[in-house]
Amino acid sequence: MSLHISSFFDPRLHAVERVAMHATILVHLPCKGDVKRVHTRRRRTDRRGSCPLSGTAGVSRGAVHFPAMRWRLLLDGAASGPRNMAVDETLAEAVAAGASPPVVRLYRWAPPCLSLGASQPFGVADAAFCAAAGVDIVRRPTGGRAVLHHVEVTYLVAAPLGVAPLGHDLQGVYRRICEALVVGLRRLGVDASLAGAETGPPVRPVEAIPCFVGPAAGEVVVGHRKLVGSAMRRVGDAVLQHGAVLLGWDGRLQAGCLGLADDTVLRAAVVTLEDVLGVVPSAHAVAEALAAGFAESLGVALERSAMNADEERRARLLEQERYRNQRWTVARERSLPA
Q1: Active site residue 51
Q2: Whole-model pTM?
Q3: Beta pairing, strands 228-235 & 24-28
């Protein structure tokens, strides 16, 4: 059974266990074939509740076991919504099967794309506006509300349940990943934090309002305004968590894709990196900072990677048979493909 946890509607998140060890990012430099090691500062370590990957019940029998401290890092360019969702799901499946170590993926979207939660009614999208504006519509494998992916960097974390330092508790995993995002954002000079139980005045409940309105406990905010919207799904014995880090804002598209008269309610509840820094930072700089934040906060070595042939075949199948299929996007049929 698939379990969806989304910060968009579930505020019941546990206290974070800070795990920060000496971290190394291994980046294979293109065209040169060498490896650059970027060391982050050493911090105190708290490993309560963690367990090594080799002892995790989430790895299937006969699976390959990987060192718990070395993860894959995929730094992808911009791709379509169906492609991005297919790749995210493929990587989570590979991790769940024991065919891949944990994965961090950072990527962008082209063209702009409105993603719907797995169980969200298709009618919340203004399909006519999206078509006229050149905005794709895709349904995510995760729950929650609509997100317009445009001026942003998106992250994915796929890891086995129980892998150190994330642990087994889904709410704890969610919060630890969000804390790693905070560490990365602070490298950019952003005073980000995790929202507490009190997150500011409530926003009127409108089904079409996207996930970025109204931060829940544990979400990444600056002040009381949401900067990162995330969602999680269990895939076998692994977790898939992905989310959007807002670089800038396009109010016309944000409102129009959801059939709203304007973006007043939306804009009041969100903050972008442009708001904080005064300029829209480059996607490359943001991805680099986030990767370093994951390495430092989780105490792992991130090794630059790409999908292998088997993963690429699976991603292409999922893209064509599910994420470009109107039976999934519109009708929410979950049975395809096998």
Answers
A1: no
A2: 0.78
A3: unpaired
